## 1
Amino acid sequence: MSGASAVGTLEAESPQPPVKKQRKQHAPDSVLGTLAKIALLGIVDAVAVYVLIQLASQHEWLIFAVALAVTLVINWIYLRRGGLPAKYLAPGVFFLLLFQVFVMAYSTYIAFTNYGDGHNSSKEDAITSIQLAAQERVPDSPQYANTVLEKDGTFYLLVTEPDGTAKLGTTGEPLHEVTPSTTSSTGQATGVDGYRTLAFTDLLQNQQAVTAVKAPISDNPADGSLATSDGSTAYVFAPKLKYDAAADTFTDTTTGAVYKDNGQGAFATADGQQLSTGWKIDVGFLNFQRAFTDPNLSGPLWQVTLWTFAFAFFSVLTTFALGLFLAIAFNRADLRGKRIYRVLMILPYAFPAFLSGLVWSGLLNPEFGFINNTLLGGADIPWLTDPWLAKFSVLLVNLWLGYPYMFLVCTGALQSLPEEVDEAARMDGASAWRIFRSIKLPLLLVSIAPLLISSFAFNFNNFNVIYMLTGGGPRFDGTTYDVGATDILITMVYKVAFGGTGRDYGLASALAIIIFIIVAVISTVSFNKTKSLEEIN
Amino acid sequence: MSSEVVPQRNTNANGEIKMPFGRWFREKGWRHIVAIVAIIFSIFPLLYVLSAAFDSSGTMAGSNSLFSRFDLGNFQQLFADTERPFGKWFMNTLIIGLVTSALTVFLGALAAYAFSRMRFKGRRVGLLSLLLLQMFPQLLTVVAIFLLLNYLGDIIPAIGLGSSLGLIMVYLGGALGVNTYLMYGFFNTVPQSLDESARIDGASHVQVFFQIILPLVTPILAVVGLLSFIGISSEFVIASVVLTDPESQTLAVGLYSYVSEQRSENWGVFAAGAVLAALPVMALFLFLQRYITSGLTAGGVKG
Amino acid sequence: MKVRSETLNKSVTRRAFAIGSLGTAAAAALAACSGGTSTASSSSASTSAAASSSSAPTGAAATLTLWTDAERSPALKDIAAKFKADKGIEVKLVVKDFASVRDDFITQAPTGKGPDIIVGPHDWLGKLVQNGVVAPVQLGDKASLFNPVAVKAFTYEGQVYGLPYAVENIGLLRNKKIIPEAATTFEEVVAAGKKAVAAGDAKYPFLVGLDPKQADPYHLYPLQTSLGSVVFETGADGGYDATKLGLDTEGGAAFAKKLAEWGDKGTKVFNSNITANIAKEKFNKGESGYFLSGPWNVPDAVKGGVDLVVDPLPTAGDKPAQPFVGVNGFMISAKSKNALAANEFVVNYLSLAEAQDSLFDQGGRPPALIESFDKAAADPIVKAFGEIGTNGLPMPAIPQMDAVWADWGATELKLIKGGVADPAAEWKKMAANIAAKIKS
């Protein structure tokens, strides 16, 4: 098979007959292969059994069923005779489903909720938090030194009034005077007969129960109740808001205002006064509706969309052109120093992007930056604040950040091109450019075209470079929105969804999905164009 | 050097010195000029990083004189800080990066082989889905990943929050992403006739994969491995949510703490750390270069 | 100390995207094959980490988790050790990247996996309360031991939510070698600065770092307040009232005009090309007599050889020049399973002078505990910052503040850059935009 590359050349030039479906003429696996397969599958199954046991012990039956199904599918894939593609794809797909598809599905779910600041968790959590925050210390009430006692599993608070009387109480049992059996040197009651005094370690064992104790200070609950948060100090609290579980309402104890579940994930009064903490609810298509009606979005949308495409397109074009050019320039075995050239060339890629962004914004500073100051002899060019120059600068910096990637990939790609093509063509007297244009580039595109599409998609959502350098600015004149000449769709989404009075994950997800659909459609169309390239082989 | 120079062509192997200048320039000289220009473009901005790394005054203006001061204060601070174990971070990054990129290459190659060499139902849809998955804006991934790992950790503590194994698994979720796509393109350039003849010689599909295909696509395997490593070693968001313990953090997460405090950020120490963090990448690249530049023509077709 | 949450938020995300995008492009393993190789290298570290981070579901845990940043972590070591010795409870200091503490806390607290205690600035409170993740703290009689401004800052909707430890604000840094005498009005400051430039002692009359994307409303705020414009008016309960935006006032318009006058096309007292980094460098090199900045830039300035004094903030109008005051403190998770231990540690241990002293020694921020502050105030610079702070306004903690920064900064930048025909109208437009955002 020493003439392999020549064979390749011939094949590349002459169209191949259509590829046969599913070849079945493979030799059977070797004994070693079979053993390896059994061993690997055994490990997978062992892990799976462990996971299944864990799930069962925690009564996670739904997930148990899913995990069991996945395990069975994996075994089926590897134990049956056919289905070769699945054997190669399964491992990667497993992780893909777990960590990428799940994420997408979750985001899609979020788009139908109001998840975000103020709607962060469940309704129960919200109610607990509101109750916690509503426990206000009764003004001018004393601070009590406190001891926690226990009797028959119930915890009691023992405090000493300023006048020296010791009082004991617990939830549902108002404070009443007791005679302490032990007192501390400061006269504080520390024990009562028949009750066990809790040491600090005992307190720790029962933190939640102890902090939950609310001993009314009198028979009138409105006077407030005693509670402790650290076990050693107690205060008299009165709730500002009272929760009525049956009616599912909060009532303000001073004004009498009633806060009801307003159906939007918050408690609110009839006239719209809302409690700060809300919860997450499903809102249906509301976020999508907002996306299409928000003037923040519809206003400058066309300009931004156009620039997004231009940015993605030119980013791919420039990085690919430069990367390819450099790859070709150094793709000569007898070029001295190419190793060191290559290493230096990939450096921009090896540094944290935001560090580079900071440096570039320094370099582009109109007054102090190296480019104006030294390179252009003190010119005053507003690189980042003129709308067109800012677009140019963003592309320039993205070129700097991105060409090492293309350079690497093209270097790899060039290696797999058969040299014989080059030589044969050269003997025919073709110019170097001709050779490149009509032979090398088409071959190269076979391997690189998928990457270019994927690179376009990446740049379409290339949030970082825009945010680092210009933050989307300079702002458009004539619109009141925070959108500028270098904003792309994803940065605009970010500003709209997170730039208001809080982060709105629901809206952000909805917008992300809309953008995703746009890019997906475009990519599908271009993807189908690659079919012709693929057929070369 | 000698091991790397592959006898790609021998036509002008001895012509280098005798070559007249004009011809030398046309053949090779311009390449050096291109190299110098490109390198200036590449590394000039990074000189500011280097300059800041060796200047303990802690600013990073990116505009003023380079190397106006030169001291090792930042590096000393980097290694002296017991709260921020730079050496540990370095090792964590190497381990997580190498393990993940090796597995990425392997998983990706498996999938690329299937996509390139087999024709099955759903193949093009599968390829397209891979492409589309990468396009999903990542605005919300962190929340979902946190919740997922939180849940997984309850079942299998070893892969929950705080574990580097869990982090590696999350990274593996991207194994079939852009890199597989890239490898797929390359596998397509390897002539099918090679597999055919191997199979006629009695090779199984596994043998074809390991003994015929993989050696032929070494350049792209090396490229993908390198790209993965760079990606992982600078990945910040997921790592910072998953790795909670300073001892287990990676360089990107740890170093970031030097500049995350607005106004009291320490760019000098950060730059010093970034310079050191770039070294493994360079070392790996130097190591992999021989594979990247040994393609089809390197005689690896022996099977 | 990090006061500008909006900016923060942005910077986090931009990094998030920067790096996340790269990271997800990489990764992979065959479940089967990886089982052996990949786990071997990392499993030991990972299992121990996992074990310690998943706190026990019941109250029995004897470990408190405290999220801190690297800067404060060493200062907390001793007090945590003392707590462990006294009470047998370990305080696990988890060093988090500061910029992500708030948002990660909001996301993680509801799952029960979040920390018990976090350290942060008081202006996070609005967000934390809104998301129901932070619990009130009873300071009781201890409240009187603290700087009242600090306790007030940590009071939100009538409740105290944190134990303060540091109060922080800007001041006017002056290089005595260049400008020997203090001045009181901004006009005098500018005149003195210009004189120094004319005499060849300095290159810049005045320095303040301006972000090239959004200027710096935080640093310029005292000038704005001295002209009579605040960002939010205070309501009846003494907290900021989100419905009363104070920007669209005569004072605001006057400030807008002044910005244009001082800006690039005017007297060039402010230079939109001078970033925080450049300003710091120039001041440290002795190229200007004045630098409007905070305690965070003091150590490097002294190291750079500046003969430093901190002057009261100069006034541009007839009102006092009030800076924003940021208060740092410890907050307890509403979902903490160790609430009792957390309260014990925060209220009874972190309020000790030794804890506050040690935090001051590490961070250099004026302590909130009066006793510690008095000790620290032996340093005239700390004292000067402290005095300026007593006159300051707490950074608004209300969530609506998030909607303000972007427009506020962009407009200031535009005015400083110059070329705006009617600065007052531009300012008014900004106020209207912000008001619209808050309403929606």
## 2
Amino acid sequence: MSWKDLALGCTLTEPGTAARLRTGDWRSMRPVTNYELCNKCGQCYIFCPDMVYSRTAEGYYEANYFYCKGCGICARECPKDAIQMVQEEK
Amino acid sequence: MGKRVGMEVSIAAAEVVGLCDVDVIAAYPITPQTHIVEHLSELVADGHLDAEFVPVESEHSAMSTCVGAAAAGARTFTSTSSQGYALMAEICYIASSLRLPIVMAVANRALSAPINIWNDHSDMMMARDTGWIQTVAENGQEVVDLLLHAYRVAEDPRVLLPVMVNLDGFTLTHMIEPIWLPDKDEVQRYLPPYKPQIRLDPRNPMTFGPVGMPEVYTEAKKAQDEAMNGALPVIVEAWQEFEKQFGRSYHPVETYKTEGAEILLLTVGSVSETAMTAVDKMRAQGRNVGLVRLRLWRPFPAKELVNVLKTAKAVAVVDRAMAFSTRSGPLCTEVKAALYDHGVSPYVQNYIAGLGGRDVTVEDFEMMAAKTSDGLAKGLPMGYEIVNVRE
Ligand code: SF4
Ligand code: SF4
């Protein structure tokens, strides 16, 4: 985007644009869930500060890497050690 | 019709701000600015001015108040000095980056340590890179005129930048001078009502001051740089309109007896009036000396300045602040850069004078002109000197 396209004072004139902010770009580690160990307790869903997890039809929790910034909180909170943080590769 | 009054300059500054129909005034008292906001509080308390007067607990809050109010679409004013400006500086960057047309009077004063409440240009120079437009007054009339001009420029949709009007502490703020004070009608004819381009409004939500990732920050600064450079013609245009209506003229760079001058003194602020007396005296003695006064500090009118300086053999730049730079004060550094950019190279001497309220006299200007002329004649290296420092 050219500097000419910026709104006055770099203002965001359209509300709700935070939903388009790809916080996943900041990540160096990504959480990977081993569903063999998962007991569907939902702790990962509750503790994730970015609302990354959503519940699947089978009751498991799935990460949306568009928002996951790799903080590792989910892996730390999981009571079953089902979540491993693995190195992000580009 | 306006009226001619004998008035303390700070009171006159407050009066004209009141005539500008400000909506929000943030006030924190700091010497020698205090009388300006004090008188505004009287105007509000006495019902002469319908504005929110916000007495804040620090200058940081003063500028924060102005930023919030301006973002909501209010016409705002505050005033500061020295350490107060230093405390406010963080928010000053935000005001300019958000393109908020705040107007602030800075009663120029030296920075600590040692604690010194008297006049020099340390605060003006510290504010150099904040992205504010900066004009400088030489006397009380100019303070009034430049404040009125400041709102007109700041709120112009082609500009939308905050404007700082510099006036020398005590030497201007606390003097009683003859001042032509415009009336409300005259002010309104010159200053249209403020119509914000964008503003915070719950019916049309938007975000001011979002995070700017590395992918966008550079572009944001470029846009600001363009706005600042683009402000110069608008500033000049507003001065031309001012002259049409009020008969007093202002220019980014002003000259006094520069015709055929070999040595030019370059000054900023109220000391220029002493320099004029010195030039009169030297001219009467047949010495080819003239004076150049910088009216506009930001945006820096490099081309206009070089145009005036290029005909001289030598320039004596009088700085009133330190830069701890390469043997140049803040003004001289910029002057040398402008000359270099334009391929002009007169002999330049830099004098640091009048720090922390030290008097700069007619004799001092004569000395600076004589030394510059001597250095030029003898081919001495271009000099840098703190005037009247005791060895
Ligand atoms: S790593 Fe952090 S951001 Fe990513 S899913 Fe886990 S808790 Fe959420
Ligand atoms: S916290 Fe662990 S066990 Fe609980 S739902 Fe998430 S992955 Fe499964």
## 3
Amino acid sequence: MSSKNLILRRIREALGDDPAQPDIPRDYRRGPAPADLDLLVERLVDYKAIVHRVSDISDAIRRIVGNGKVVLPPGVPVEWLPAEWLPAERSPAEGSPARFVRDDGLTPAEIAAADAVITAAAVAVAETGTIVLDAGEDQGRRILSLLPDLHICVLRPGQVVASVPEAVARLTPGRPLTWISGPSATSDIELNRVEGVHGPRNLHIVLVEEAAARS
Amino acid sequence: MTKEGTAISTHAPRGVGHLRGDQPFPAAAKVALADPQLRRNLQHATTTIRGKSGRVIAELPDWQELRSAGSALKAYTMANLPGLLEQLEEKVTAAGGVVHWAADAFEANRIVTDLVRQTGERRVIKVKSMATQEIGLNEALEADGITPVETDLAELIVQLGHDKPSHILVPAIHRNRSEIREIFLREMPGADPALTDEPSELAGAARRYLRETFLSTKVAVSGANFGIAETGTLAVVESEGNGRMCLTLPDTLITVMGIEKVVPAWQDLEVFLQLLPRASTGERMNPYTSMWTGVTPGDGPQNFHLVLLDNGRTAVLADEVGRQALHCIRCSACLNVCPVYERTGGHAYGSVYPGPIGAVLSPQLTGVEDNASLPYASSLCGACFDACPVKIDIPSILVHLRNEAPHPRSERAAMAAAAYTMDHPKLYERAQRAARLAKLLGKRGRGLPPPLNGWASSRDLPEPPAESFRDWWRGR
Ligand code: SF4
């Protein structure tokens, strides 16, 4: 008998003929609720992420990255980048060294050599301070947000939901998903929280708000 | 050399894996009780995590509703296990993965070892996983000339220290910073002699040490927190990013998952992703959760194998009272509230599953005769039941298992009396108080709450403590 059949037979024998079928009570909080951006920011900051509430994405990125070199998923729009970086993409041969490189199948070593990565997100959860990446074109392969020490995630208010159930409902299960709550952390040494063991040690969230709404 | 599993017994086979200790709990506990450093570390850890967990649980107005949903979902899963496992297999296969079934630890080790050997690689990186510890996979790989590298910081400390994990969640909790520094200096190739014992420096040393290993190792082995039948999606919940490294960088990923970890539907994650981190690390959400479904071209490992592990789980399922132990999501909340665990630490339990859940799960996986003292490694105070995010009634299972454990006649009589009293918490509490008032307190076995103190030292009826356990616990 194959182990599969053996295990399935053992389970059926263990359960008997007619195991009781419990109902699942779903009276916990579900369904849409207003997403509180202030709460999201508070929870992100509590987890040692750095949050920038801005209307100008490229200006924020310029300030965060400084002189670093950036990797970009294929779908991140050039409009997010500081204007002075752009000639480098069009013709890296002339002028200053490229400030960024787009992922068209970069090697792990090339990705690890970058100082930062810029991605979008698929959804964010206000109540837990979580962003979720689903490997869409503007988020890229999982490896991109893993190796560089600085992860900049650009978030739009429409991507923010109130709770975990809403996030689960919005996501597509077949895609590779990475839920991120603050930068990598460990508490293994005497329970002291230390940011960054293996993942990015710095997580910056650029929350895009309309100029009018911020005034 | 791996030995063929005969797959006759439904229990986890002897002679392999880490479900049985070298000595019974009372003897091992005595050693632990003599170690004041261990008790200080444990007390600090359990108190800290309890506090954090309590605070973030209090933020959720629907915690009890979530617990009820989680509990019902697990009961539903067990009742429908054959169909859910076949559905999981079908979905994983459709998404480009390969599913293997392992009746016991021998077979699981052989499957994984063969898969690694077929890749031609001699080294694997590992994500912390209870299932692979349970089956002794590292030892099996080493016996076959394959080097397993633990990548979780705590597991790395344990591995470099030639030691055993002592807590499900923080396996190196019994070590403090200066010990960790010494282990790194002694065992970590290339460690800087100027390394201090600052936690951030120690973590930095581990980061540098492992980075190159992550980037150059082509096979990874992981466990899984959840496997979703409806979609074939696997999920690993972690903090450090070592999990993401292992799940993302290698060409081949082999995941070993206990058959009880299957979850019916995608939607059900909305329950477990709220319960697990808050009960476990006391965080609203753990820093990283990875989810993958089979193979994604161009992203992550291009070969994915899922090993579904029985190893005694069907024996647990056959016991109508005990099968609840399979609902466990390994959050470790019950360890952190347990007065016995807090005094003895994880090593005393002899199994990779310590604390209250270990006291009920290990004897059921191995057969009660192999872990006969574990059902007594508890005060039956009920704190574990209250803490459990999926409402496993551990005290009831303990009492139930006590009746199954083989004991000499004299012992049995004493235990029957004790079990009767403890089966009736009100009576037990009153008995404790009455005894205290009557100043019946003896000196033997101090340090452990009853009935362990009495049993460990004299095998008498439990001795009453100075204040009843419940009084004492409330007053903390
Ligand atoms: S028995 Fe409950 S509290 Fe204990 S580890 Fe399992 S899920 Fe957590």
## 4
Amino acid sequence: MEIFDLTIHELHEKLKAKEVSSVEATRAMLDRIEAVDGQVNAYITVTPEQALVEAEAADKRIAAGDIAPLTGIPVGLKDIFITKGIRTTCGSRILENFVPPYDGTAVAKLKEQGAVIVGKLNQDEFAMGSSNESSYFGPVKNPWNLECTPGGSSGGSAAAIAARTATATLGTDTGGSIRQPASHCSCVGLKPTYGRVSRYGVIAYASSLDQVGPLTRDVTDAALLLGAVAGHDPKDSTSVNTPVPDYVAGLATGVKGLKIGLPKQYFIEGLDPDVKRAMDEAIALYKSLGAEMREVSLPHTEYAVATYYLIATAEASSNLARYDGVRFGHRAEDARGLKEMFAKTRAEGFGSEVKRRIMLGTYALSSGYYDAYYVKAQKVRTLIMQDFLNAFNEVDVLLTPIAPTPPFKIGEKLADPLQMYLSDIFTIPVNLAGTCGISIPAGFSAAGLPIGLQLIGKPFGEATILSTAYAFEKETQWHLKKAPL
Amino acid sequence: MKYQVVIGLEVHTQLTTNTKIFCGCSTRFGAEPNSQTCPVCLGFPGALPVLNKQVVENAIRAGLATNCSITQRNVFARKNYFYPDLPKGYQISQFDLPICQHGHLDIEVDGETKRIGITRIHMEEDAGKLVHADIPGVDDSCVDLNRACTPLLEIVSEPDMRSPDEAIAYLKKLHQIVMYLGICDGNLEEGSFRCDANVSLMPVGSTVFGTRAELKNINSFKFIKQAIEYEIERQAEILDDGGKVIQETRLFDPNTGTTRSMRGKEEAHDYRYFPDPDLVPVLIPDQWIEDVRATLPELPEAKRARYVAELGLPEYDAEVLVSSRELAQYYEETVARFPQAKTVSNWVMGEVSRALNEDNNRSITDCPVTPALLADMLKLMEKGTISGKIAKTVFDEMYKTGKAPEKIVEEKGLVQVSDTGAIEAMVDEVLNNNPAQVEQYRGGKETVFGFFVGQVMRASKGKANPAVVNELLLKKLKG
């Protein structure tokens, strides 16, 4: 087994036993990136010099007997995370050459532990997309089939795990952007409860929905990485001040007697037969492990996608106003006057998906339409939240598919944005409700493409979905399969 | 036709917090451009606002002092528009749930009291400023974001004012209150207290308001009055000619005393307000409001009433003394040491104010004659150690040197002479040297008496106790 194949906890043991150094692990990872990223395009920026300096520092720390779970581990960050001194593009031309002057909180926490940042990962522009085709830096290819998309918007973060070009990565999830690509790339992706992880230093797409989370090779790593970045942050008013449990310690709780809910609105006609089969197998496995299955209802599910596209685009239209060419990022040349400078800068800097969503959001907030669209969407959002809370009065966890289909071909849905928007139909409600969800590898289609399984937990129920996921992982081999690269 | 003017005012007060409303940067005025900035107030990607608690507290203070009800669940909204000095592309403000609502202030104009409604007070951040610099080789405009994200309260009145004088009375009152509360430095020139005026005309007797013009960002009481007066004339002319006033935003030009159009309604912004998802609602429990209420200072109106009722001061004195919190404090500290309210008032309104005025309008807080010194001097006067006349000399000396009055009296030998023997000798001398005047007096010309007093005082170099002098002179002349 190569160093780049290892999980965080496996590499941690080797670093601790001094069987391998962080510099060796980092070199191996950088070599691997060099060897295969040309095919995958998961990285926008690779930072070899800086990574090796950090690796050396980690080795010194380890030699001094000071080793945290992430010390010396090569990680990649979605390019939405603000990194001091490292170019941060958010997948957009408008930030093509933007080098931030500060680190965000999640990044600072990783650095405190001594993690080694090997680079910044490709993503849909400003996290807007379900296929990673909207990046200014070109589409990411799915390591399981280079003709397919890896999903989005954290497509680079998921593909890097599958391509084994990062031991672990951080992504963000606004409507499924961690879970859906994790599913498409056969890795573990966790979207924590809104407020669990600080958003300070994460470029905002839709502030009330965005949440930071880990993408990893297995459930233990997800627990480790979440534990490292979770917690209250005085720099983020929306981060919640509740204690962070030891997620790893709680993994082996088992599922005996656990009540798992199956929302009937998620098991509908038209679900891809391969996905349906994987779900049936998972349900059977959980039953055999002693979990109790119950059908539950989330009656407002059908409104989730529409609600999401009103709230997310409304917030995005405002969040993206700061990209005006005045203080940083791209500025159009030869513009005459201020208004023209704003307009040209944004026309040149943003791609078509971003423009589409800014226009949608601007419309939804404009006077005369605000009540009909934005206010109504907020009301529906409350109903969707209530659906989940009602369901959690009956069950501990919900089990659902992640995506209606296995990964699709690059370009397949580009001409039909509405069809593309529907690919997040099973993940979006979790963001609207603000609760947590995890995607774990649950099988492969007849064509050999990954299929993920979603477990949804109560607000701040990360420990429960992690232990539920862990029980499944222990009994299956899906997470051990390697993409053919 | 005769018109009635209708005026409503929006006042922006910059709060005197040490740090900005959503980040920890300093709010000090006049620093090197962009030296007081951070990712948050620069609107950098990924940065998030965190509310400064002091701002909420100051807003509650303002609300309580203007008889408002305090909103207990507060929401911040985004006001979206593009401008180069607005870093995020939106201003964080309050929209449908402002922190204070439904208040009022009572003003007095020409002896009549009138109640002006306060619609709302809300918290918001300021924008930066554009510097159209006169720098050789630089054609571009520069942006200074030191002011971006400094805390403001916007205080919006009802359109209750019916004359420029009422508008100014309201503004001065509001200015006085925020200064008393210590939440704003009140500096109009630096823009800490600035005003937009909505002005419209309607025929006298009508109850339907005319179309209004909004006059933007005027930074002195004088200019506000001029701007409103000009608007009244301008709009009256339009209406007299059968025209229609258009709703627009106008700028006042202090050089010409006129207003000119800045933007019309057709360019009006759609600000697309919505609740800021980066800030959680601010909940204000009853206890917080009561805690703030307990720390409110006595406000000018209450102070004035108390001066009249408890200290027996005339209305006029009370009004002058409460005009600023610092002056009132100086007065009260002096009275605490020398409880003759009217005497102290005379000195504070007289000598103290005169000396400060002559000294480049020096602030009362810098007055070299502290309340303690002034009280000590008044005590010397009361004991008869010095006369009222000498007191003025002593005061001037204290103002110059800051020395204690006893010391000045001692050093300069200013002690009043009340010793009957010494004064009697001087009286005798004066009478002996001026026999002609003595004749006149005894012949019935009593006005000569003042001449004798003057001579004795001169002989004593002003130190003789005038009462004793009077008494002895009368005795000798009549006897």
